[in-house]
Write a structure and sequence with these properties.
This protein is an alpha+beta fold and 424 residues long. It has helices spanning 4-12, 17-22, 69-84, 89-99, 103-114, 121-139, 149-160, 164-183, 206-209, 223-231, 236-247, 251-255, 288-296, 319-327, 344-355, 360-366, 374-379, 385-398, 406-412, and strands spanning 26-31, 34-38, 44-52, 55-64, 262-263, 268-271, 282-285.
């Protein structure tokens, strides 16, 4: 062991965090060649004097406060170790920088590694678009191991208040990319873009910056009159909107529905997990009115979709249903209400909760929502299908859904469809 007195004397000559933060222009030694250099303008940088191949050289370790005293000492120790083993720490650092991927390169690798697990191509495009627009101009060319908290803030702060929802997505995506880099040992595991316990201390919570707005929804008591008016419209788009309302599904789920997913005998529409938000298959019981819509839908050769679009082999676009509602005077700026197609799920939920006695779990399952926490989900293995069939028929009856073409179907429908609930 060394002499405690000598050790104490050595420590007394070392810098402290306070000395570094208050240092005026000049040079300050920390020992073993590490030095803080403060310019006349007050800019501070770390310099290490190291001997390599018998030659004394100076090696920059970064600027303060980006590189703290502790980080400077750690970098200096690594460099001294390389020099002691006969290597050149300056040359080693250059090689490391050449091999270290930039943020843009790392983001591209992350997207390639994960895009097959994302539910659709649109999600991948959004990843590329947001990072290209907001992150790349600021940190795109920076090596992933050099990105710090101040870099994350430089990306997020300008858009945090004006584009809160987008900014939160960008934060999450930067966090994921840097975690990916850490897993490949390209950087320190401590993530400077982490929200919980880090950026949440530096930025206001998104919910406090911007009030969450829900999709405008039509009052369920207006649905019967709306459906009568909708039934007077012709075309696949009007039929698609009608089907969406009757099944209480999301726009993408309805428009991408395929004939292969429909079991007419059982009167069931099975949506595969790959198209569901919860990534779990969802069975939709089809009411008399929903089956009536299927009866009058056109079939196009080479197109597997219930609602074929103008492009060969493709479904209607997401704008098709909005256009129908705009033509009826609804939508943003519409004189009859700013309702949108997705809002009919809320209309359905309000009807189920206020005008019926169906249990909450049946209502939530109809919307393909997960019930309770993970423990409750582990025990709730069933999908309450028979109870949901009764509810969806009641919903269709509430909407008073009828087409002239439906009458023939209703007269000839199976008297005891497969999976129909027992009379109560």
């Amino acid at each position: 062991m060394g002499d405690p007195l000598e050790t104490a004397k050595a420590d007394m000559g070392k810098l402290t965090a306070r000395k570094v933060s208050t240092a005026t222009p000049g040079k300050y030694e920390d020992g073993d060649g590490l030095r803080l250099v403060v310019s006349k303008t007050g800019a501070k940088k770390w310099v290490l004097r190291v001997t390599t191949a018998g030659r004394r050289r100076e090696m920059g370790l970064g600027a303060y406060p980006g590189v703290s005293l502790a980080e400077a000492r750690s970098k200096a120790a690594d460099a001294r170790k390389i020099a002691a083993e006969g290597g050149d720490p300056i040359a080693a650092r250059k090689i490391k920088k050449q091999q270290m991927p930039t943020f843009t390169t790392c983001a591209a690798r992350y997207i390639r590694a994960h895009r097959r697990g994302w539910k659709n191509a649109k999600h991948a495009r959004q990843w590329v678009s947001t990072l290209k627009t907001y992150a790349r101009p600021v940190i795109g060319a920076k090596p992933v191991d050099a990105i710090g908290t101040e870099d994350a803030l430089a990306v997020l702060t300008p858009i945090w208040h004006a584009k809160t929802e987008t900014a939160k997505r960008v934060q999450g995506r930067i966090e994921n990319v840097l975690d990916f880099a850490a897993a490949h040992k390209w950087r320190d595991p401590l993530n400077p873009a982490r929200w919980r316990g880090h950026l949440d201390k530096l930025l206001p919570r998104p919910t406090r910056v911007k009030t969450v707005t829900h999709h405008p929804a039509m009052d369920y008591r207006e649905l019967p009159a709306f459906m009568v008016e909708l039934s007077e419209l012709h075309g696949v788009s009007a039929l698609a909107l009608r089907f969406l309302i009757l099944t209480a599904t999301r726009t993408s789920e309805a428009l991408q529905a395929q004939w292969s997913e429909i079991d007419r005998e059982a009167r069931v529409w099975s949506i595969p997990a790959s198209r569901m938000k919860a990534r779990r298959e969802h069975r939709v019981p089809l009411s008399d009115a929903a089956m009536g819509v299927l009866e009058v839908l056109p079939r196009v050769d080479g197109n597997p979709y219930l609602f074929p679009g103008a492009r060969y082999g493709r479904p209607l676009s997401n704008m098709a249903l909005l256009q129908v509602m705009r033509g009826m005077g609804y939508g943003v700026g519409g004189d009859r209400g700013d309702y949108v197609p997705h809002g009919f799920r809320s209309s359905f939920r309000d009807w189920a909760g206020e005008a019926t006695s169906f249990p909450r779990e049946v209502c939530e399952m109809a919307l393909a929502h997960r019930l309770g926490d993970k423990s409750e989900q582990a025990y709730a293995r069933g999908d309450l299908f028979l109870k949901r069939r009764k509810m969806m028929q009641a919903w269709a009856d509430w909407c008073h859904c009828r087409y002239p073409n439906e009458e023939a179907f209703l007269r000839n429908r199976p008297s005891n469809p497969v999976n129909a609930p027992e009379p109560v």
